[in-house]
Amino acid sequence: MASGPAADNETWGKCKTKGEFLCAFMKADDEAAGKRLEPPQDSAASRFNNFPELFKTLRWWQGQDDKITFTEGGYGLEWAFKNLGISKEKEDWTFCKVIDDDQRENASKSYEQSYNVVGKSYRATGAYYTVPINVKNGVIIVAKQYSPAFKAANRIPPVIELPELRYSSDVVWALWKEQTNLHAREPGTSAQIRHIITFDIDNELTKSIMNRALKELGLYRDPGWPGFEFSMDSDGAKAILGSPNGLGIGYLLGQHKKELGNMEVKFIRIFQSDISSDNKEFWCIYWGLGAV
């Protein structure tokens, strides 16, 4: 199991309830899903769609990491890729990064930065995401996700006013949409998301939910790929979906029905990356996707 304790009843119950909501949210059509939101909306669609221009408007910095590859053991996902039919070749991947501060060489230190959007001043939170994307095989890997809310609370002094763009579902969708637009004319390109992997879970609440899910089913065997599978009618799967690392996946699918159709998480697999060691465990979640 992941390091740390198993979730208590209260934490487990809250995450399970959120997961149940997301299951219904993903299954519903756009109008019905919108009515489930608070406050109710005519559509579940996210209001953030004009990317990548919106990153510039909202003052998020974009970049790519060309040094990372999957061909020499990077991320330790080789067995998963082979089993799922996913290419590990560098030319099929873009390692996207986006950060809520100015990364230019002449920029001030991150915690000192502020910026204006539509006449309103914001302090940079330092939020950042690293998201490798393979459009050819329809793959998103959420490798690092440190949200504005998380980073803002840890600034000194804390950042009170969060940026408009603040949810991982919108950030990940923006990066996916940008890459599909860039590669749209390439042979064999998929505009559909087929696989999502959350890599290296380090959120303590999510790990506690994973531990409880594994403990309740008595799963203690080798955690390497394909790991431990949970069907979505199980309490464990619902609680994992409702955990901090699962919420963004549910909203990503539920808020983009126009582009993706009615898609949902069909099952969940918890596994350890092959680069896990005695010193560091790289726990991952594979989100099995399919049409409703």
Descriptive account of the structure:
32% of the residues lie in helices and 20% in strands. With 292 residues, the chain is of the alpha+beta class. The strands form 2 sheets. Strands 1, 2, 5, 6, 7, 8, 9, 10 and 11 form a 9-stranded mixed sheet that branches. A two-stranded antiparallel ribbon has the order 3-4. Strand 5 and strand 6 form a beta hairpin. Helix 1 packs across helix 8, helix 1 packs parallel to helix 9 (244-254) and helix 6 packs across helix 9.
Question: What is the beta-strand fraction?
Answer: 15-25%
Q: How many beta-strand elements?
A: 11
Q: Which structural category fits the helices and strands?
A: alpha+beta
Q: What characteristic shape results from the CA principal axes?
A: globular
Can you write the helix and strand succession as a string? Answer: HHHEHEEEEEEHHEHEHHHEE
**Total separate domains:** 1
Radius of gyration, in angstroms, nearest whole number: 19 Å
Largest sheet: 9 strands, mixed
Distance between the termini: 31 Å
- Average pLDDT works out at 89
Helix content: 25-40%
Residue stretches low in confidence (pLDDT < 50, at least 5 long) are none
Helical stretch tally: 10
